[in-house]
Design a protein that fits this description.
By secondary structure, this protein is an alpha/beta fold. It has two domains: 4-214, 3-Layer(aba) Sandwich (Rossmann fold), CATH 3.40.50.450; 233-284, Orthogonal Bundle (Arc Repressor Mutant, subunit A). 35% of the residues lie in helices and 15% in strands. The protein contains ten helices and eleven strands. The protein has helices at residues 49-60, 77-88, 111-119, 139-149, 164-173, 191-198, 207-214, 233-241, 248-254, 259-271; strands at 4-5, 26-29, 37-42, 67-71, 91-94, 123-126, 152-155, 177-180, 202-203, 275-278, 281-284. A nine-stranded mixed β-sheet has the order 1-2-6-5-4-3-7-8-9, with helices on both faces. Helix 5 links the parallel strand 7 (152-155) and strand 8 (177-180). Helix 1 packs parallel to helix 2. The longest helix is centred in the C-terminal third of the chain and has 13 residues, at 259-271. The chain is globular.
Length: 285
């Protein structure tokens, strides 16, 4: 996909507010439509299972809303955020520390993820020349763009020496809403989120909390038993199956499609409050 310089008039308007503006921005792919909110997601590269599950639950709960997920294409929280966005049909923007040519996109382990982002209609953005190879010292500079684009910044987890702490502090400097996921007391990955919550960051434990900060009204809950009008095809198949309670195995056997696709749709219904598992069986709520 073509690499081109992003015209100044195309830059996300909130990015123009930050000090030390990039001299240029290069882009592959497409930015989301006007009126889309940008949620930047940051966290540890050595992501915990709890952090992964929380990240996936929160982002997949935003499915269907005008939100683009911004992150840095790095290992751990970045990759999790991008993949959750792709799985839920959300637009996503990756800002690697490298240029955007296939030969230099970094990290190489996420090269296929970068291709998936482009194939989905998302974008890769960088202030570096297309063939620029990444340098570790340049990553904090990249992070200022991630925060500058954002309407809000979500911190998944961060230890007491994590670079995520620097990124989170930028949110305060740039007057961006900072959101943090709570952790267990004593968890070393909780240092950053708990510190910022004490300092006034919003505690986030469900997708609705993110929508509140972004000023996006939640969809009205359908009348019990009424078929929602905005279900995806696979979600509708499962919804119709749940006229009577069914186990997960019964759903997987009875609905055509890959297991991963079916489970993603089932989770999407649960996050929207349309389905629930009790005593081993799924039913409509």
């Amino acid at each position: 996909m073509e690499i081109r310089e992003l015209e100044h008039a195309e830059w996300p308007k909130q990015l123009l507010e930050i000090p030390q503006l990039p001299k240029k921005l290069w882009i592959r792919g497409a930015l989301p439509p006007d009126g889309t909110s940008y949620l930047t997601v940051v966290g540890s590269r050595a992501m915990t299972r709890y952090g992964q599950e929380a990240c996936e639950k929160l982002i997949m709960g935003l499915a269907g809303y005008p939100i683009s997920i911004v992150s840095g294409l790095a290992l751990g929280a970045d990759a999790c955020a991008h993949r959750a966005a792709l799985a839920s049909g959300l637009h996503t923007v990756a800002i690697p520390g490298s240029g955007l040519d296939d030969a230099v996109i970094s990290p190489r382990t996420n090269f296929n993820l970068a291709k998936d982002i482009l194939a989905s209609g998302g974008a890769l953005i960088s202030e570096q020349e297309p063939m620029h190879k990444p340098w570790l010292k340049e990553f904090p500079s990249r992070n200022r763009i991630m925060v500058g684009m954002a309407d809000a910044v979500l911190v998944i987890e961060a230890g007491n020496k994590s670079g995520t702490l620097i990124t989170a502090r930028l949110a305060s400097e740039y007057n961006r809403d900072l959101l943090c996921i709570p952790h267990r007391i004593g968890d070393p990955h909780a240092f950053g989120p708990h510190l910022f919550i004490r300092l006034g960051a919003a505690l986030v434990s469900e997708p609705l909390h993110i929508l509140e900060v972004l000023g996006i009204p939640p969809r009205e809950v359908s009348e019990r038993g009424a078929t929602p009008s905005d279900l995806e095809e696979v979600e509708l198949v499962i919804w119709n199956m749940l006229e009577e309670p069914k186990t997960r195995d019964e759903i997987l056997r009875g609905a055509a499609g890959a297991a991963g696709e079916l489970l993603t749709a089932l989770v999407a219904l649960e996050l929207r409050g349309l389905a629930k598992e009790e005593f081993g069986s799924w039913h409509r709520t």
